[in-house]
Amino acid sequence: GFKCGIVGLPNVGKSTLFNALTQTAAAQAANYPFCTIEPNVGDVAVPEPRLEKLAGIAGSANIIPARMSFVDIAGLVKGASQGEGLGNQFLANIREVDAVVYVLRCFVDDDVTHVAGKVDPLADFETVETELMLADMESLEKRRANVEKKAKSGDKDAKAQVALIDLALDKLREGQPARFAEVPEDQRREWRMLQLLTSKPVLFIANVDEESAATGNEMSRAVEKRAAEEGAVCVTISAKIEAELALLDADERAEYLESLGLAEPGLNRLIHAGYRLLDLQTYFTAGPKEARAWTIRKGWKAPRAAGVIHGDFEKGFIRAETIAFDDYVALNGEAGAREAGKLRQEGKEYVVQDGDVLLFKFNV
Ligand code: GDP
């Protein structure tokens, strides 16, 4: 599955947000740095209104949404890349995620200590990102000597790797994250294999006070501007309100949202932003037993998409019986779609489209 890592300085609202995400009020947010020492992984259902529609038509007994994982990564402090604070564990955890979510404190509350002594989300962002850049630099410099030795003895892969390492190091030495480097299309895979912390796509969360949940505030606007400058997505959220929303039932939640002037929970916006960031899309399977949403990357071909359900589906892939979501709905399900000639037989080269309703045929 796809994983987003939540990072930020201590006391910016990461745990509050994470708890809201996973609806576990149990792991209580506490008002002191380092309260989140163990990385926590939470699976979140991806809100998908089409799924219910599909289940209704297919008469499915169960609805199973797609899931996205969020990892609450232990608090980072200045100097973490030098092994101070929770550095090493932090770095190990963040290497595993597909995207990095920066939680930035945009609320003032004298009862909540700020590690730097004042609330300044952009300065906080610089602090965290600088640590990640330093960590990348250090790990690349360590690796470079070794890889270069191999390259000198004629290893072609190693040669290409040295070039990529230098590409990253050049960026980092300019004080810029590795994601700003221009990587040749045919080397993206090798680039990803370098596992750099600052080459992952990023998403900003401006965590605002309760009063600013619907409107944002001056600080969140500064964060939005900063995000826009690098073409990144920014979601303005009040973690505290999200935590409250998570404890309400559907009716109460709708009422509370309305009173706040919000169209939907911030967490929905966050999850959808994560989808966009990671270039994800959904396909469906539907039958009497269950209607289910599956997450894939845009551009994946049918066999790879099938592999998300089971490895055997990919290995033994024969074809995918395919109905576009709109056709499925308009023709009232599989039988109607088949009759109308809207059920397509798609082969190995078919690029799955968002909302496709698929039935895989495969050899065992
Ligand atoms: P973490 O260290 O980044 O995980 O931060 P926590 O989630 O533990 O939050 C630290 C403190 O800030 C807690 O006392 C939270 O209740 C408080 N807090 C988090 N988000 C907000 C917010 O949006 N508004 C206010 N006023 N307080 C918040």
From TrEMBL:
Species this chain originates from: Glycocaulis albus
Function: ATPase that binds to both the 70S ribosome and the 50S ribosomal subunit in a nucleotide-independent manner.
Protein name, as recorded: Ribosome-binding ATPase YchF
Cited SUPFAM superfamilies: P-loop containing nucleoside triphosphate hydrolases (SSF52540), TGS-like (SSF81271)
Residues the record lists as binding ATP: 11-16
PANTHER family associated with the record: OBG GTPASE FAMILY, OBG-TYPE G DOMAIN-CONTAINING PROTEIN
The family this protein is said to belong to: Belongs to the TRAFAC class OBG-HflX-like GTPase superfamily. OBG GTPase family. YchF/OLA1 subfamily.
Residue span, OBG-type G domain: 2-257
Coiled coil: 130-157
Domain TGS: from-to ranges: 279-362
UniProt keyword ATP-binding present: yes
Obligatory cofactor(s): Mg(2+)
Keywords associated with the record: ATP-binding, Coiled coil, Magnesium, Metal-binding, Nucleotide-binding
